[in-house]
Amino acid sequence: MPAPTRLTVPSRGETTAALATEVIGGPVGRFAAIGRRGWTYVAALLSALASVFVALGVLQKNHCVREGWGSPGSLWRECYSDLPVGATAVHGGSPWDTGGLGHNQPVLTAVLGWLVNQITPGGSALAVQQVYFAIGAAIIVLLVAATTLATASIVRGTPWLAAHVALSPVLVTAALVSFDMLGVALATFGLACWARRRPVAAGVLLGAAVMARTYPLVIIAAIVLIAVRDKQLRPMARMLGGAAAAVAVCCALAVLMGGNPLDPYRTWWDQKGSYGAPSYVLTIAHVSVPGDALSIIAVLGWVIAILLGLYLTGRPKERTQLAPLALTMLVVVLLTGKSMSVQTCLWLLPLLAVSAIRWRDHLVWAGVEITYFVMVWLYIAGPSNPGKAMPGAAFSFFLIVRAIAYVGIAWASWESSEDLPRDPLDPYAEPRPAPAAGRRFPHPVT
């Protein structure tokens, strides 16, 4: 089954992509030599374009770059970022010293923030924050480029799908809020290694990703379910061994630096519901829900996600693909969790690309995400000026719309992935036969 035109030449096969290319000369011509320069050329081009989107993110945060990240100004201007928080830590020591990131961030994210702090020169408080933010932005540009490269290497036959990482509008608003792209990059390289039949390397990278962001555990679970279905138990065991080794090394690093790698998870268990989670609607309605109860619901969300994954991979007449499976399980975990930060959207981008999502669906989801980005800051800043704050009822509406958008993009990924000739993340999959004339594949989730 050959790849549809929308995957090999998006500007010819998708109306949305064709309209977008008008600013750079229009769709690809009919006499163009498609694919002659290979996937590495596409990856390099998209990586360069991704830096433009991150630069637009710096421009979007221009007020804070000039005036500082103090509250409530950074909230009203929607330019808040966690990055300058790392600039307030004391030089030397470790990420687990008083005020360090190790108490509320996973090990590798905390270490990265600490390292940036060590190379940031001293000066006035604003100058230190500005330099720290600039270094952090440069690192994030490289991480986005690396994620784009890894995604393109997964979909080598259709490398323009990596544009869903490099050219996503959510990069402008979310990329510079934190160092979440570290976990995204590590997880994507782990997926690329799994696709190339390198299970140990995949496990090490995915284990490291877990120690930067927790969500790659969902990807590991999805890989396990697919491997069990395909009876590839040996590669699965090697992948899990690599992941366990990476986690052990990271935890040992934290202990050697005088910290406790479990600190952020203990803090999470006691926390109450926070912004972004659907359960936060109860908080807005002045319904008090204990943090322990929300933690139990979040754990049950993981159980539900795994059970759903078992069902989806166990259907005899369908060969479930890894990317939409992992994306669906991730959405279940997110919607039952205690919070959904504005940078959560970054976690989905590689999975959307490998699912061959249509740009129409991507942009609708991104539009909702960017709208929520604006509304959440207006709501958080409310106590400083109730007269222009986002009302709780209106914010609840946007919370629900955002949750629906996440369900919608997960649903759309199943249909769009049907256009792929084979599962790019399943190294043991056979090419899919072409459908009969006038017939589409049955929808995987019905």
TrEMBL record:
Region of interest called Disordered, as start-end residue ranges on this chain: 424-446
Keywords in alphabetical order: Cell membrane, Membrane, Transferase, Transmembrane, Transmembrane helix
Membrane topology of the entry: Multi-pass membrane protein
GO molecular function: hexosyltransferase activity
InterPro entries xrefs: GT87 (IPR018584)
Superkingdom of the organism of origin: Bacteria
A Pfam family assignment: GT87
Biased segments, Low complexity type: 435-446
Localization: Cell membrane
Coiled coil: none
Main location: membrane
Gene Ontology CC entries for this record: plasma membrane
Keyword flag Oxidoreductase: no
Membrane-crossing residue ranges in chain numbering: 39-59, 131-155, 167-192, 204-228, 240-259, 293-313, 325-350, 362-381, 393-414
Family stated for the protein in its record: Belongs to the glycosyltransferase 87 family.
Protein name: DUF2029 domain-containing protein
Lineage: Bacteria, Bacillati, Actinomycetota, Actinomycetes, Micrococcales
